[in-house]
Amino acid sequence: MDIAVSDIERARSIPLDKIDVSAPDLYLRDAAHPYFARLRNEAPVHYCRESLYGPYWSVTKFNDIVEIDTNHKVFSSDASVGSFVLDDTTLNPVEGGIYLPNFLGMDPPKHDIHRQTVSPIVAPQNLANLEGLIRQRTRGVLDGLPVGVPFNWVDRVSIELTTMMLATLFDFPFDERRKLTRWSDVVTTRPGDGVVDSWEQRNQELYECAAYFQRLWAERAAAAPRPDLISMLAHSPAMRTMSPEEFLGTLALLIVGGNDTTRNSMSGGVLAHHLFPAEWSRVKADRALIPNMVSEIIRWQTPIAHMRRTALADFEFRGQHIRKGDKVVMWYLSGNRDDSVIDRPFDFVADRPRARHHLSFGFGIHRCLGNRLAELQLRILWEEVFERFSAIEVVGTPVRIPSNLVRGYADLPVVVHA
Amino acid sequence: MVKITYISHAGEARLVEAASGQSAMEAAVHHNIAGIDGDCGGVIACGTCHVHVDGTWTDRLAPPGEKERDMLAYIDNARPNSRLCCQIVLGEELDGLVLHLPIAQH
């Protein structure tokens, strides 16, 4: 890992109370790890007084994160008291942001009803139906790649495959599917991060998204129920009466959840193999390792770096006094590097024992709904990759996204070898 | 030792012997029973050790606690006899227990 020496030294010498692991440039440089290591050692439940997002608590150790994640009665996700991401502007009408309410930002009981409405799309029976289509598309995308010539894996493979998947789940007009990619990027950004220039632009693009889906919704509502997400929402007694805001918020959740996450695991897996080449040979020789390797990729990449909760009451935790209303950030990226739970956590180990025991999907009632679909897409991708290529070489510096939420890549220059 | 039978969704039965004090999830993972994942390690946080308890055994188990009931509410194919088997602690009184596996964990 090419973390600048200055970050390692700075992480060691900076006063503890000055550490701010939320700074987006740390993620652009992939330089957050040494700061997290110090927090895990010296202040596993840490208060940062000043940040771009105001004061917040950081929880950085694996088991502490599980404890907060499963205590939804005290640590709320509800939009009425805060948000499930650190940056309030992402989903709430704060500064220039707009209100995007959805079930990940709800506590029970409303959360349960909304989640259960969309859950069948990623239930085991439906995934079995999708496998053939995913494999056919994966083969098509991989067979279309130029061999021996540099290209951006993110755009040609990761975005393409995840966006096609999302278009299928929504039954979205296939030729216009890159709109989904764009909206996914727009939701999780703020002006100045390189995606939009102003709040007005962000809002305008999100309203376009709402209008586009409103048309799809009207079509589906007028037709017989079908097994796509829009039709499921339009025919659900609980969700067909959603406000326009809730509709857009739910879309935002489904688009980002079904897109940014797996996209960045598809890219991260390539980088992991590049950095740990012995693993490539090992799995290529023993394809039965692929499912385990997929879990390891999802841990190693940790495509969602954090989730946040808001304390509904004062709470004593590991000797710290969390007050009602405080923001509490669970850094999955840090917990997945906690060597008290995970042996050699910085290494990518394809046959790691208990590889499924990672934090990337979260735990508790808000655990990732699409986790099995993500694993299926990644498994098929790697089965088909090993079938075709002798190597995937990373030929330039990966360009990362300056986000403390979506841990991912804009550009991963590679050459594939036949 | 306690004998437990896990029956796969396809109907294939496997009988294992487990030590008292283990959970039915730990016993399954230890014996490589396909279809029990136990991603969270047994802290009622993931719902990937879902089983359907056979017949009269349902009433002979200690009832699920609040956390388990919360997680069961999100599980596909949940039925009145659904349990997270990390919460079934094995003792001599459960000798002969039969657990059915769902089509897949989610």
From TrEMBL, chain A:
* Record-linked CDD domains: CYP142-like
Q: Which GO terms describe its molecular function?
A: heme binding; iron ion binding; monooxygenase activity; oxidoreductase activity, acting on paired donors, with incorporation or reduction of molecular oxygen
Q: Name the protein family.
A: Belongs to the cytochrome P450 family.
Q: What is this protein called?
A: Cytochrome P450
| Keyword Oxidoreductase in record | yes
Cited InterPro entries:
Cyt_P450, Cyt_P450_B, Cyt_P450_CS, Cyt_P450_sf
List the Pfam families hit by this protein, alphabetically: p450 (PF00067)
TrEMBL record, chain B:
Mention any Pfam family matching this sequence.
Fer2
- Tell me where in this chain the 2Fe-2S ferredoxin-type domain is found: 2-105
Q: Does the keyword Zinc apply?
A: no
Q: Does the keyword Transferase apply?
A: no
- Mind listing the UniProt keywords for this protein, alphabetically? 2Fe-2S, Iron, Iron-sulfur, Metal-binding
Q: Name one GO biological process term.
A: P450-containing electron transport chain
**One term of GO molecular function:** 2 iron, 2 sulfur cluster binding
- The leader peptide range reads none
Fetch the PANTHER family from UniProt.
2FE-2S FERREDOXIN-TYPE DOMAIN-CONTAINING PROTEIN (PTHR23426:SF67), FERREDOXIN/ADRENODOXIN (PTHR23426)
Protein name (database record) = 2Fe-2S ferredoxin
